[in-house]
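Annotated sample (chain length 350).
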Amino acid sequence: MKTHNLLAAIVLATTLTACKDDNETKNNLFAIDFDGIKGQYKPDESVPLGVVNVEKKQIDSVVYYLNDKKVGTAKGAEKLTAALKDTKLGYQTIKALVYYEGENAETTGQIEVISGTKAKILSYEIVNTYPHDVTSYTQGLEFYHDTLVEGTGQYGKSVLRKNNYKTGEAYKQIAIDGKYFGEGVTVFGDKIYQLTWKENTGFIYNAGNLNKIKDFQYFKPIQGWGLTHDDKHLYQSDGSEKIYKLDPETLKEVSYVNVYAESRKAKELNELEYVDGKIYANVYQTNTIVVVDPETGSVLGMLDMKDLLNKITKSPETDVLNGIAYNPKTKTFFITGKLWDKMFEIRIKE
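Output written by the structure step:
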C-alpha cells in the first residue's frame, strides 16, 4: 500500500512539474512590447499596449489588463491604446492574455502612474502661540468642540488626553497599557479612535468621558501612524505613501490611494487632519506638511514649517514636528511637535 502511495505521489509530482514547465514555456512565447512605452505616465495620458511575438505564432486576439482590470481587447497583433484616467497613482501591472492557435498564454510588465498636479508652495502666519506639555510625545491632535484631544506615544508613557489648548493643561487623561505605543487619534461622532504603532490594535473610547468602548484589530498587518475622518469614513496612514479609507463601523478597508508629489512618492505620512475635502499630513522626520487630495492621492500643496523650530525651547529630547489640528470656529490650524514646549495657531495662505 505504501509502495502504491509513493508511486502515485511520484506520478503526481511529475505531472505537476510537466504542467508547470509547459505553462512557463507558453508564457515565454510573448512579452509586453515596451517600444514606445515610458516608465512614468500622468493620469491624463494613454499607454500603447502591444506584445512581442517571439516565436511568430498566429495570434487570434489579446486581452489587456491594468492591475487586473480589463482595459480592452485587440484583434490579432494589433496594438491597443489604454487611457489612464481614473487609474490609481502608483505602479500598474500590465497583463496581456494572448489567444493563439487554440492555446492561450499571458505575460506581464509594469509602468508607474504619477501625479499630474503641480503642488503649490503654501505659506502661513502665526496667529497665537500657546504652551504645550513638553512631556507629550504628540502622535495625534484634533479638536472636539472647544477641547483639544491629544494622543501621545512611547512605550510605558502613551496617554490619551483632553486639553485646554490655551494653557496646555489636561482636563482629563488616561494612560494606555504599557505594551502599546500610542499613535494617531481622531474623533468621529461621539467616539475617539486611537491607533497603536506595531501592535496591529486600535481603541475606541467615549469622547465625553474617555471610557474605553472596545479594542479593534487592523484590517491587515500594517503599522498604525496617522488617523483622521470625513463625514463618512476614517483615513489611516501606515508610514508608507498609502492612505487607507476605512468603514468606521467595521474598520475594514474601503479603498486606498498612493500619495505622490508630482513624480515622487510621498512616504512616511504621519499625523493626518481632514479639512474641507483635503488631508493635511505631517511627513515624518521633516518639517513639511503636505496637502493631499484624498480621492486621487495627488499632493496639492506643501508647507515648510522649519521656522517654528526657532520659536521653541530646544532640549536633547526635543523631537520632530508632528501634530495638526483644525479649529472650525476660528478657521485656523494648531501645530506642534513631539516633546515641544509650544503649540502654534496658524493661518495658511497661498
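Annotation: The first strand starts at residue 30 and ends at 32.
Annotation: The two ends are 81 Å apart (CA to CA).
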